[in-house]
Amino acid sequence: MGNTQNTTDIPEDEDMFVTLNMDDGSTVESRILTIFANGSQDYIALMPLDENGEENDSGIVYLYRYFEDSQGNPSLENIEDDQEYESAACMFETLLDESDES
Fold first, then answer.
1. What is the sign, positive or negative, of the torsion defined by CA atoms of 37, 5, 93, 91?
2. Residues 20, 27: contact at Cβ < 8 Å?
3. What are the φ and ψ backbone dihedral angles of 92, each rounded to 5 degrees?
4. Position 12 confidence tier, pLDDT thresholds 50, 70, 90
5. What is the pLDDT of residues 41-65, one digit of tens each?
6. Which of helix, strand or coil describes residue 38?
7. CB-side exposure of 25: number of CA atoms within 13 Å?
8. What are phi and psi of 94, to 5 degrees?
9. Is residue 41 within 8 Å of 64, Cβ to Cβ?
C-alpha cells in the first residue's frame, strides 16, 4: 500500500456524477465518492446508482485509474493488474475507515 497524496473529498452537499459506458454497450450513472492517490497513481471511487438514481443496495463501488490532461479534462482507465487493484481497494477502505472515525 502506497502513501496517500492529494486525497480529494467530494463535498456531500455537492454530489458529482459520471455516466460510465460499460463493455456491453450499456451505461451506468454513478456518484463520485472520492478521488485519491495511492503512490504516484490517482484513482476514483464510483458508486453505481440503480434505475431510480439511488445508491445500490449491495454497496458495490467501482475503482478506476483517474487521469486529467493539461486542460483538466478527466479520463478513467480500467485497473487490469490484480495486485494494483488490491492495493487501490485497500487504500480506499483505509480512507473509508478514517472518514467513519471523524
1. positive
2. yes
3. -60, -45
4. low
5. 999 999 999 888 888 888 899 999 9
6. strand
7. 0
8. -60, -45
9. no
Q: Using CA atoms, how far apart are residues 83 and 26, in angstroms rounded to an integer?
A: 28
**Grid cell for residue 32:** 463520485
The Cα 89–Cα 62 span in angstroms is: 10
Give pLDDT, residue 99: 77
Q: How many helical (H) and strand (E) elements, i.e. helices and strands, does the chain have?
A: 1, 6
Per-residue H/E/C for the chain: CCCCCCCEECCCCCCCEEEEECCCCCEEEEEEEEEEEECCEEEEEEEEECCCCCECCCCCCEEEEEEECCCCCEEEECCCCHHHHHHHHHHHHHHHHHHHHC
Beta-carbon neighbour count of residue 75 at 10 Å? 10
How many residues would you count in the chain?
102
